From TrEMBL:
Provenance organism: Pseudomonas syringae pv. actinidiae ICMP 19096
Source species taxonomy: Bacteria, Pseudomonadati, Pseudomonadota, Gammaproteobacteria, Pseudomonadales
First and last residue of the signal peptide: 1-20
Subcellular location: Cell envelope
Primary location class: other
Name of the protein: Cation ABC transporter substrate-binding protein
GO molecular function: metal ion binding
GO CC annotation: cell envelope
Entry annotated with the keyword Plastid: no
Keywords attached to this entry: Metal-binding, Signal, Transport
Gene Ontology annotations of biological process type: cell adhesion; metal ion transport
Length: 139
């Protein structure tokens, strides 16, 4: 029910763009691209920098990624240091905007990594955090 309500809000947020050409968006990886595409519908064209089964922790951007980002109207990232390469790519690409950080405002979770307790950067795996991601796309 909550996700349905958010989807309706998202569609109405994009309604004013109905007659305009689709926004060009870049998403850091496919989960983010799927969310942006679902929220934006035909009002947004989304390119995922990392393809299916790619790893956002260790991805190495290509010159094509820099070009896609430079040409984008909007850029979306998960945040929480998941895409450690993104700041470097933004600078190299000449992208003029600030990326939309979808994890902004979430309740973080912890996980163990190499014997240390760290913030879990896979925040979208929580349904409650997924709702926050969608709200940040709409905003």
């Amino acid at each position: 029910m909550v996700l349905s309500s958010i989807a309706v809000l998202a569609l109405s947020a994009f309604a004013s763009l109905a007659q305009a050409k689709p926004l060009e968006a870049v998403a850091s990886f496919t989960v983010i691209a799927d969310m942006v595409s679902t929220v934006g519908g035909d009002r947004v064209h989304v390119k995922s920098l990392i393809g299916p089964n790619g790893d956002p922790h260790v991805y190495e951007p290509t010159p094509g990624d820099a070009q896609a980002l430079k040409n984008a109207d909007l850029a979306f990232v998960s945040g929480l240091h998941l895409e450690g390469w993104m700041d470097r790519l933004i600078k190299a690409s000449g992208y003029k905007g600030q990326p939309v950080v979808l994890s902004e405002g979430i309740k973080t979770r912890s996980m163990d990594e190499d014997g240390k307790r760290i913030v879990d950067p896979h925040a979208w795996n929580s349904a409650a955090n997924g709702v926050v991601y969608v709200r940040n796309i709409i905003a």
